[in-house]
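Final report, Chapter 2: Outcomes

The project's central promise was a pipeline that accepts a single protein chain and returns its three-dimensional structure in a standardized token representation, suitable for archiving and comparison. That pipeline is now operational. To close this chapter, we reproduce one record exactly as it appears in the project archive, with the input sequence first and the structure output second.
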Amino acid sequence: MEGVTPRPAATLVMVRDGDGGPEVLMMRRPHRGAFGGLWVFPGGALEESDHSDRCRRAVSVPVDVDDLPWRAAAIRETAEEVGVLLVEGAPFLQASDVGGTSIYEEVLSNGRRLDGGRLRLLSQWVTPEGSPTRFDARFYLTRFEGDPVLTLDPAEAEEATWVNPGEALDRMSQGVWPMVTPTVHHLRWLEGFEDADEAWEAAGRLTSERVTPLIESDGSRVRLRLPRTAELP
């Protein structure tokens, strides 16, 4: 379908150190919609509240970044979907049953701020033209400490777990965990690091460019080809 405008979105790749190396938080979408049944990182589309003055007051970001709504959306969506809230001055908070603007209001009323400075931009992926649903999604990395109770929104996630990137890729290869190309791409990148700090330092060296996969067909099958901009160090 031509002419579909990509919808801005943000995804949070949460990495922590486990017994066998880095672990990343992944969740399975309900079996409906464009991502039905897929294993993904927490995230979703930007909302009007992410551009609000209340959001700007509730989220701290480094002075040299201009992507506050995307960072806010990544943190907000993670809180809504798995119940984990990134705040200043603490590893995390267990999010209460609120969403959208209510998250920003609750944080401010408790004298807190969401910690957008704990995110580093990894990449920006745009769904190819011709797709019925398109997103312009920014992927952010954050280091995480602790073992929070994951409180899932059943409308957004049916299951969630911390998993070694290599193990997640094995499950994908076995057909147990279906995934889309950007998820697989970032897992392969994470697989090359020995700990969360190493991944964090590598993310700080990235110069992100838009990644728009190309759809190719040889008449018998269709496949995606990734451009040079997809490369991660």
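Archive annotation: The chain has six helices and 14 strands.
This record, like all others produced under the grant, will remain available to the consortium after the project formally closes.
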